[in-house]
Amino acid sequence: MHSYSYIHKTYYLYNEAEIELKQWLWRASHSRIDAFKKLYQKVKRHKEHILNAIRLGMSNARIEAINNKIKLIIRKAYGFRNIQNMLDMVYLVCSDLRLTLPNRKSKAT
């Protein structure tokens, strides 16, 4: 019964989102503001992808977070001697590898 409830709820949210998106697209298409017209074109072009993200409950937040970490490392890596050191730092920060520093006790997990 639980899975039926989840599927029904997801279907309802998807239909509601589709209705809301159609209404917003209509209002944006009739707007006199150029920025809204440009946004309308982009949203209309990606409408199916937006609705699929809502239907599947997925987002690209994890990918964006990793991308942000990498950009930060690259910014910090300005003083690295070579590219390999920077790549090693990206692998180290973005992995689940936990290293203990010399003369330090590891935390119990």
What Rg, in angstroms, do the CA atoms define? 23 Å
The helix-and-strand class reads: mainly alpha
- What proportion of the residues is helical, as a percent range? over 70%
Count up the helices.
5
Principal-axis shape equals elongated
Q: What is the residue-averaged pLDDT?
A: 82
H/E order of the elements? HHHHH
Please indicate the percent range of residues in DSSP E strands (runs of 2 or more). Answer: under 5%
How many DSSP E strands? 0
Low-confidence parts? none
Biggest β-sheet description: none
User: Roughly how many Å apart are the termini?
Assistant: 37 Å
Note down, in words, how this protein is organized.
The chain starts with a helix and ends in a 15-residue tail after the last helix. With 109 residues, it is mainly alpha-helical. It is elongated and about 65 Å long. The mean pLDDT is 82. It has helices spanning 2-29, 34-45, 47-56, 61-76, 83-94. It is built from five helices and no strands.
Task: Give the key terms.
single chain; 109 residues; mainly alpha; 5 helices; elongated
Brief description of this entry?
The chain is mainly alpha-helical. Helices cover 72% and strands 0% of the residues.
Topology:
Elements: H1 2-29, H2 34-45, H3 47-56, H4 61-76, H5 83-94
Helix pairs in contact: 1-3, 4-5
